[in-house]
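User: I'm writing a short methods note and want a consistent example. For dTDP-4-dehydrorhamnose reductase, I'll paste the sequence; you return only the structure tokens, no commentary, since I'll be parsing the reply automatically.
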Amino acid sequence: MKVLITGADGMLGRTLQHELQGVEVIPTNHKTADITDAAAFDRCLALHKPDVVIHCAAMTAVDKCETEIDQAYRINAVGTENVASACYRHGAKLIAISTDYVFEGDSPVPYTEFDAPTGGHCVYGQSKWAAEQAVRTHCPNHIIARVSWLYGPGGPSFLDKMLSLADGTREVLKVVNDQRGNPTSTIAVAQALNELLRHPELVGTYHLTCEGEATWYDFACRIFELAHVNQKVIPCTSEEFRSPAKRPANSRLAKKKLEYTLNYKMPSWDTALADYLTRFYTK
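Assistant:
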């Protein structure tokens, strides 16, 4: 099986290059496969003839999307439409990476794959929702894989930021405690994608976040505990860290489709974090 990865220079793309098993991986980036150029991306698929395209390329700088709206839609929405159309023409299955930001983020319970998104409250979420719609319209043989609160080798991520801030120059770190989600290792996402690749008959929307939930404050405390870093952390509200883009209060994603179709369970976020720090973190 030949698997082409868009955005292979990004955090998830880099992990997939190392963690996908039993397949030939074709990494691409903006220079070798410009998703905003429909003709160029079509030529890329004609050249490589992949069986599967894992579409990681996206504009993920959430606050930047608020000020560069055209660019966000050009990359996330139109770029994904180009990828989906090309996959359909060349007979490649598309696995498109999406996000919890497509939801409003105000539900009292985790979102399932059967809940109806609206695009959320920010440009990033709205552009990724447009991307999901493009995938469903233009490439029936697809999986939309939603992830959230990602960290992985090389970053950038919340985990990397916390460890860099805990450099001994700050007595206290204030971390938001009113947003909840599923901290998720890119390693765990790659393992789930390996499983999905073994089942080419599966299509539709899947959530690929780790099990369990935490606030950003909980996540930070556990990072420092497991990394044996002595750093005081105190909780605060989102109002104390206002940003151009509104963050969802609820980013929790339930993994119903993995359970129903494969009886597959993602690792707990705590276990995945401990494994990750053991494997990749050194003081």
